[in-house]
User: Fold this.
Amino acid sequence: MNSTHLLKSDNEKLCDKPKEACGVFGIVAPTEDVARLTFFGLYALQHRGQESCGIATFDGLNVAIHKNLGLVSQVFDENILAKLKGDIAIGHTRYSTTGSTNVVNAQPILVNYKDTKIVLAHNGNLVNTTDLRDFLIKQGFSFESTTDSEVMAKLIVYELGQGKDLKNAIQAAFMQCQGAFSVLVATKDYLIAVRDSHGVRPLCLGITSKGQYVIASESCALDIIGANFVRDISPGEILFINKQQKLDLGLSLSEAKPHHCIFELIYFSRPDSTFKGLSIYHFRKELGRQLARETPIDADYVISVPDSGTPAAIGYAEESKLPFGEALIKNRYIGRTFIQPSQTLRELGIRLKLNPLRDVIAGKRIVVIDDSIVRGNTSRKIVKLIKESGAKEIHMRISSPPVQWPCFYGIDIDSREQLIAANSKSLEDITKFVGADTLKYISHEGMIKATELHRDLFCTACFSGEYPIAIPNELEGAKLRYERTRQEV
Assistant:
């Protein structure tokens, strides 16, 4: 195991929240500093991935790429951005859900077919990567990374080699891909957006005040550069944008079958983003209101586990007519550190990220609102922290149902062994493990009701076990399967 794995492991001990796949951003803007605009777009999408990031730009036939491990602000500076010249750019922030934390797995990915250069950035997970990879290897392709993203890029090259033009090659390549993929592809002439027919991961289209098109994982990335939201990229849509800002809407994948990941709304997306016109912040507040209706409790204060639990906590407090208090202060600068904590600090655990306000907590009956419980370790540490601060009672309320099933569509939970709700016999067992006086989850029906949209629009597989895209048995616990294969060889 290399030092990168060790660093990631230590950080994850402090947070057992689910991790997202990636964020993508692309822009077509001749005469503009596309690298700088992409930098700020990625900055807004940093929450979607903190392992690595990269930007690629096209300046005529020339492609410039810079990518590395680390945060956007660590990987890029003025000198680097100045070298990324061009009129089309795509960028990527990564959290690994297929393949390890390694610079070779950073994106965007560059591939070549004759004189054609293609750059690709991907959010999501394929479920048929093994079949596609094996097929390409038989056709003579080799792979530098261990990601499904490189498989998609080389599948485009394969289709070009079969005599197809770029548009038909893109369509043919992604018609073979099964799973979740919101993808940006760039060439010297086009910015291309492709979204799987289920629309599991988000992708939206925006336009700047100068009429230049932008594509991003979330609308908050449009806001940061002053672009206006136009619409979501539709499930199954393939959208070509040329340098004259002409949209080519002629191609698509199979018939759209929308199943948007509901965890995007509950946890992953920034609260200032939108989904189908729905404010993510408003939705999370409504989750809290619904949670209060379903799980009332007599208490003195409602507090949140910051930051993702805060909107639901405000909603819970408003609905239950209880005061909302800030009682857990978050260190927002801990980020992804390369400095290992000492054993003494490691034993303090959650205090590296959260510190309690004892005068708010001591002697009080506290309702603690969080968005989810995955492994349960962080919840246990938070309850212990609040108890040690003198709380009289601790009542945990969770604004999502129990996470009982793995996700294979771009969330880093690929085995039921990781999930406390899948392995505990009862709610009482989980309550005892975390150490709260009571613990309640929102109902599945209440969660859907809070969206004000139809149940069939969403993927809720991690809560229900109902997978909209068939999952091969080999995928459980198989995030690093290609690393194992490479080591065996």
